[in-house]
Amino acid sequence: MKILHSNLIGNSDRDLFIIHGFLGMGDNWKTHAKKIAEKDFQVHLLDLRNHGKSFWSKDFSFELMVDDIYNYAKHNKIKKFSLLGHSMGGNVSMLFSQKYPEFLDKIIIVDIIPKEYKPHHENIVTSLMSLDFKKI
To answer: Which of 44, 95, 64 is CA-nearest to residue 1?
Structure first.
């Protein structure tokens, strides 16, 4: 089982997982995490699969990312935590709350609402997939 990469900020028995948006990474939230940690939290800045320093896989879905967060919590023996999800991370967080509500103390969703969005990142993904990183 592969475990997500994280950057820990603060030292407390109150855990907050921050889940970044599409094409982001946990460290995008480092400035906010430092301020949150001052309020007696240990902040886990997670890199979701195929993002940042976490493992990369051909398999990619919200359901898999939910299970990755679950595996991270179990691996680190964290039984209860709060979850902050931004944009795509908000969608993943809402799905996590449905599948594993017993793990959550609180959930905070930023910059997304629970509705179906039309695909709108195809041009970015297609452009990125066309790059030959061996030449760059």
So the answer is: 64
d(CA 53, CA 39): 27
Q: What is the pLDDT of residue 64?
A: 98
Q: Could you tell me how many helices (H) and strands (E) the chain has, helices first?
A: 4, 5
Asked if residue 90 lies in contact with residue 114, where contact means CB atoms within 8 angstroms, the answer is no
Tally of residues, the chain: 136
Whole-prediction pTM: 0.85
Distance CA 24, CA 12 (A): 26
Give dist(CA 83, CA 103) in Å, integer: 10
In angstroms, the CA 56 to CA 66 distance is 15
Q: Which residue has the tokens 């449905």?
A: 98
Q: Which residues of the chain are modeled with pLDDT < 70?
A: 113-115, 117, 120-121, 125
CA nearest 95: which of 120, 62, 57? Answer: 62
What does the alpha-carbon distance between residue 16 and residue 80 come to, in Å, rounded to a whole number? Answer: 9
| Residue 80 structure tokens | 């209860």
